[in-house]
Amino acid sequence: MPIYVYQCGDCLGEWKENHLMSESIDECPWCSSKNIGRKPSNFSYNANKQEKKKKTGDLTKEFIENSKEDLKNQKKELDNSR
Ligand SMILES: [Zn+2]
């Protein structure tokens, strides 16, 4: 059974539903709004990836920089404990 990702246009909540293609969900489980959209989960994944591509790159760089700092600090701590 395919898994669908739904997003509510009102509360922007996202959730997954596992059902037949012929079936559909028409109410948001969070706020009971009918203003919801369905998207196949893999499609949603790709769309998000593309949208956030640049930001993710920046975040990755930042993460690497932070990791370097962490390593430095850890090394310092090791040196001090010796
Ligand atoms: Zn909602």
What's the rounded overall pLDDT mean? Answer: 79
Provide the helix percentage: 40-55%
CATH hierarchy class name of the largest domain? Mainly Beta
Number of domains: 2
Radius of gyration: 21 Å
Helical run tally: 2
Using the coordinates shown, work out and report the CATH topology of the largest domain. Rubrerythrin, domain 2
Assign the CATH architecture of the largest domain.
Single Sheet
Q: Based on Cα principal axes, name the global outline.
A: elongated
Query: Could you say which small molecules are bound to this protein?
Result: zinc ion
- DSSP strand (E) fraction? 15-25%
Q: Main beta sheet: strand number and arrangement?
A: 3 strands, antiparallel
Q: Which sequence of strands runs across the widest sheet?
A: 2-1-3
Distance between the termini: 58 Å
Enumerate the spans where pLDDT stays under 50 for 5 or more consecutive residues: none
Order of helices and strands: EEEHH
Please state the structural category: alpha+beta
Counting DSSP E segments of at least 2 residues, the number of strands comes to 3
Describe the structure using short key phrases.
elongated; binds zinc ion; 82 residues; Rubrerythrin, domain 2; 20% strand; single chain; 3-stranded antiparallel beta sheet; alpha+beta
